[in-house]
Fold this sequence. Notes:
heterodimer, A: alpha/beta, Rossmann fold, four-stranded antiparallel beta sheet, 9 helices, 10 strands, B: 270 residues, mainly alpha, ABC transporter involved in vitamin B12 uptake, BtuC, transmembrane (chain B), transmembrane helix (chain B), ABC_BtuC-like (chain B), Metal ABC transporter permease (chain B)
Amino acid sequence: MFVPPVAGACAELSGESAAPALADWCAGLRGAALTIDGLSCRFGGLVAVDDVGLQVEAGEHVALVGTNGSGKSTLLRAVLGLQGRSRGRIVLDGTDARSPGEWDARRRLAPWIPQRQATGRFPLTVDELLDSSGHRAAAVGVATRLGVAALARQPLHTLSGGQLQRCFIARAFGAMANGGRLLLADEPTAALDFDGRDTVAGLLRALPASVLVATHDRAVAARCDRVLEMANGRVREVRM
Amino acid sequence: MSADTLAAVLGLAVVHRAIAALLITGVAMPVVGVFIIGLDVVTMRFAMMHVALLGVAVGLMTGFDPTACAVLLCAAAGASLAPFAGRRDGLSGPMVMLMTMAIAAALLVLSISGVNAAGAFELLWGSLLAVGMRELVLVAVLAVAVLAIYLGFRRPLALLLFDIELARCSGVRVEALATLLLVTVAVAVAAALPLTGALLVDAVTLLPALSARNLARSFDGMVGLSMVFGLVGNSVGFVIALLVDLPLGPILVLTAGAITLLTFVVGRKR
């Protein structure tokens, strides 16, 4: 398993223009193990995730690939309790969340980059979004690296799809700095240009924590330790 | 209206109370409107009118204070909607059910008790010029509570009203906060009905919030602007109604509507 050296990870995450404080949060990161066992999720009669078992070791980076509708997003959402499960266990850092308090703790441990970033019914600025990560300095640092820090006062609904995605990525990294140990990234490069894809793939690779990323992007998948494929709600390993 | 008549009207105690009610509702009810739009429960007003009617019917039948019954029943109804707030289907279905069940129950209670239904339906035609001290105090307490909720929960509120899943993933206790907001909205609508009537509730609640949404760039900006538009709309509407000697209610609605249209045009040009 590739474990990024902390110094190298900090350099990648901070880039040239970010604040020195970045090194502090980056050095404190560590991964948590995720075990999914016999997980099934249904939408009425449709089985979106079918008896899935998978393991992400602490610090491991795993890519989840597969066609549209194969169940990748549902799986990630189930880890966060945003999607109900009909059966199975999802254990992160030794806990299978069941109570509201345990789900709150789970969501702190597992920051999320959503596939469809909300633009909301309400005005919310980039600054307010980054602030919601719980670690403003880290989020702003990554936003700087991704070229969206200057948009701080812009309402999210005025941004392009790519800018919005970069803001949500920066927020997720801020949440990692705020105690996150497993990053769940759902198509994190789908709306980005070529340079943006490379930058985000590099940032994800540099993260010294566990990562489970659903992606169609070969550059992202190629930089992960393992690649799993989902088809018809089931998972199989395609590369070690 | 002549200057002497105007001075005489402004010297009346009922007008003083009406002005106080306009200023209080002008500040607080637009914030409730922000909650309503954010939670996407615009039909809540209709639902609460029906539930309030049931409360009044129960009050008339049992001899308890009808307004207190209406407020309490609305609070309970608001809380009962909370479990549906985070669901994909939203609150429209449960609210329609609540609304129809409440009006049916109200008519049944009125029929069984033999109480004159007109007494209950008067609630829907409240008047600012018939505001008593008790209603004024109730709305003032509510206004303080609404502003305290906003100031105390600014960050979680901004996230919850922006996107419920983002709020959940940011550590916001979505269920608890949604319950608090729904109860607040329900009680606020019920408490404002005797003052403003069903017609004016929208003018003092939703229209200033919609005006603010046309221009605001952040959650705090939206709340602040909604209060400004609420105060300006109520004040300007009141002055116009006095000067042209026309009914206050429709003038207030038209003034708030004109502000909303103006902000829509300005907002599109920005």
